[in-house]
Amino acid sequence: ALTLGFGSAQAQGLVEPGKLTYGVAATFAPIEYSEDGKLTGFDIEFGAHMAEVMGLEVNPLNMEFKGLIPALQGGRIDIINSAMYIKPERAEQVDFVPYMRVGNEIVVAKGNPKGISSRDDLCGMSVAVTLGGIQESYAREDAAKCEAAGKETVNVMTFPTAQDSALTVRQGRADAFFNSTPGATVQITALPDVYEIVGETFAADTQFGFAVRKGDADMKTLVSEALMKSVLDGSYMALIEKYNLPASVSMF
Predict the structure, then answer these.
(1) What does the radius of gyration of the chain's CA atoms come to, in whole angstroms?
(2) Gap between the Cα atoms of 82 and 72, Å rounded
(3) pLDDT, tens only, 65-85
(4) CA atoms of 93 and 95, how far apart (whole Å)
(5) Over the range 35-64, which residues count as b (16 or more CB within 10 Å of their CB) and which as e?
(6) Which residues of 203-240 are buried (b: 16+ CB within 10 A; e: fewer)?
């Protein structure tokens, strides 16, 4: 069992004593990404702060996203700290501590050449999404809706990363791509002459959560307490502002 001695490095049952070992797939700027060979982003900085609050050193392990839950279940990491969407099928495998509310955006080429103003305008168009990501399910919903209305379907183009999806829009091979609000924020900030966001934020009821092993109540309590302390000491909102995220992502 874990003993919840904050600041005393007394947490037991950790992969490495005295350390919070977490899994991350660092390919999702600005939440977690790699820059000059170093991990950075909201989750990376927040993970370090949470570990500090717990009285632990931080030990991030960067891996493929699909390997995160198996690594947690196999006892190779203590938690997952990787902007993981809380979905029912995942909640059957792991327990979550929610920490961020996230919406999604329609991103198009600067100037909005196809005049897209909402998801209702996408029938007969090509939309790029990350394979297996939550945005793929939204695009497939739109395709089904178009077909049900007797309209031309949405051509859903899937790619390994959001960067690949963005590139197809830049090259004119896709008319739009769906990205999370944080991801879209980065693209617009970095390339304001290339991309723009159109329409309203959609599906804004989704959440990111830290994942702990199913039934591991001690670790869940430890993470929840560290999260609340980080909210109360102001570091949570400070990081939201630092990474140019809209205030709407805050859950607190």
Answers:
(1) 19
(2) 12
(3) 999 999 999 999 999 999 999
(4) 7
(5) eeeebbbbbbbbbbbbbbbbbbebbbeebe
(6) beebbbbbbbbeebeebbebbebbbebbeeeebbeebb
Distance CA 123, CA 134 (A): 19
How does pLDDT run across 121-150, given as a tens digit for each residue?
Answer: 999 999 999 998 889 999 999 999 999 999
Please give the Cα distance from 90 to 241 (Å, whole number).
29
Q: What is the pTM of this model?
A: 0.74
DSSP state at residue 225: H
Contact 26, 32 (CB under 8 A): yes
Of 37, 39, 79, 73, residue with least CA distance to 56 = 79
Query: Which string of DSSP letters, residue by residue, matches 109-176?
Result: ETT-TT---SGGG-TTSEEEEETTSHHHHHHHHHHHHHHHTTSPPPEEEEESSHHHHHHHHHTTSSSE
Listed in sequence order, the residues at least 6 apart from 53 whose beta carbon sits closer than 8 Å to its beta carbon are 6, 7, 226, 229, 230
